[in-house]
Amino acid sequence: MFYLKDYIKIKISGFLFLLIFSFSFTLTVAQTKTNLEIFYGLVDSSVAKINQSISSNNLKIVFSTGDYYSLFQNQVIADFVRHGRTILSDSTKTSSDFEAIHYSIDNASVNYGDMERNGLLGDFVMQRKIELSGSYSISKETINSKRFDFAYTDTVSVDDAKAIENPSFPFTQAEVPSEPFFSGLFEPAIAIGSAALAVILFFTIRSK
User: Fold this and answer.
1) Claim to verify: residue 57 and residue 86 sit in the same structural domain
2) What b-and-e string marks burial along 63-93, b requiring 16 or more CB atoms within 10 Å of the CB?
3) 127 and 57 share a domain?
4) What is the structure's pLDDT at 156?
5) Distance between CA atoms of 136 and 175, rounded to whole angstroms?
6) How confident is the model at residue 163 (pLDDT cuts 50, 70, 90)?
7) How many domains, in total, are found in the chain?
8) Is residue 76 within 8 Å of 47, Cβ to Cβ?
9) Are residues 16 and 115 in the same domain?
10) Close Cβ partners of 112 (under 8 Å, ≥ 6 residues apart)
């Protein structure tokens, strides 16, 4: 005959298994943004800042990003258009009702922090910090340069490092830190010990 206490023992045993082994699994709730996607977001922030200081709807944009960061030029133009500005080409005949935007990027970098476990036996994770800085000026006749500096910080899986980088753009890449020495030394023993403990608890509860 099946008694209630037997049912409770089975439930407790199953709970113990799940509790111990759940440390080794990590649930990915959302897809991690790539480093390049985050850079585009920081460029958006720089344009939003500049846009607050613009009085004219007609703009001419002069870029000083060089070949290294030239891929952001179209993003800058598109952002100003989304803010309701009209971008004039060099060949466009204009009146005095326009402003020249001098836009420059001098640093775009990615840095990864130290590697650590996400939980007792979870995946290795690391802090990711992405920075974008440069300068801009808004002028009709005079140029007064101002700085912009934006940063983004989050935590990413070490296994995703290659997926979030873009080999075509070196500034999206960074050195991945080494695995902690003690982590690699003791974690196999912890995993084996946890499994053994679960088995012992299971049969101990079943025998009572």
Assistant:
1) yes
2) bebeeebebbeebbbebbeeeebeebeeeee
3) yes
4) 95
5) 30
6) very high
7) 2
8) yes
9) no
10) 126, 127, 128, 129, 161, 174, 175, 176, 177
CA separation for the pair 185, 188 (Å, rounded): 7
When pLDDT is cut at 50, 70 and 90, the band that residue 78 belongs to is very high
Q: What is the mean pLDDT of residues 62-83?
A: 93
Residue type at 111 in one-letter notation: N
- By residue range, what is the domain housing residue 138? 31-177
> What are the angstrom distances between the C-alpha of 175 and each of 74, 116, 172, 180?
29, 15, 11, 15
Q: How far apart (Å, rounded) are the C-alpha atoms in residues 74 and 63? A: 11
Query: Taking the CB of residue 39, how many other CB atoms lie within 10 A of it?
Result: 27
Q: What angle do CA 107, 146, 36 make, to 5 degrees?
A: 30
DSSP-assigned letters across all residues of 68-133: TTGGGHHHHHHHHHHTT-EEPPTTS---S--EEEEEEEEEEEEEEEEEEESSSS--EEEEEEEEEE
pLDDT at residue 17, as a whole number: 47
Considering just the CA atoms, what is the radius of gyration of the chain in Å? 27
Task: Name beta bridge partners: 58.
Answer: 86
